[in-house]
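task queued by scheduler; priority normal; single chain, no ligands, no partner chains; default sampling; output format set to structure tokens
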Amino acid sequence: MSDPSFFSADSTLPVPVLVVEDEPLLQQRLRGVLLQLGYAPDALVFAASLAEARVCLAAQPMALALVDLALPDGNGMALIEQMRLEDPGLGILVVSAWSSEDAILGALRAGATGYVLKERDDLEVMLSIRSVLRGGAPIDPFIARRILQLLPQPAPAPVSSVAAADITPLEEALSARESQILRLVADGMSNREIAEQLFLSRHTVECHIKRIYRKLAVPSRTRAVHEARARGLLA
């Protein structure tokens, strides 16, 4: 934005920021992230529905928007399309729990600048916002892999059967923490028990388990343990 009214007093942060999110706890989380970035509370505008967001947009132009897709009165993609038409240079970051192909590509086609999953921690969300503010187009790593999977893949180079047996695809490799949590899942521990044993929050444990599901392409704890044992990831 070239209009000086779109910048805060220190001339570094574009204001105001529109946050379109209907869950109060997530509103508070995003408020905290934006305050850590240096935004003043009065620079933040919150809307819990498409209708509220449109009222806010009619009242004043926005300099940055964080948008959820699943809203009580419709899909956030419609709002993204409207904002992109009204302001081609507006930074629009989708912060959503949706990770389906239709949601990802639909939001990007509608005009979203970037896309980050809600399950990411505050630092990752903050880095995505910073990237948008600097003119970047941040894409959640999981989403980036999904997009790459849609592109034509070159034929793999031939490898010997011995070498192939020793290779674990990058997208399937578990981190040390994920392997540790998976072992505790295999021991029959609940998320709460795992969190207490590892001194982690229950939310952090749940996020790790969701990543384990994605990497192993399974829908449940039982299937995750079975698949991990089949691949030799668990004894």
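post-processing summary
- Residues 202-216 form the longest helix (15 residues).
- Confidence is low (pLDDT under 50) at residues 1-11, 160-171.
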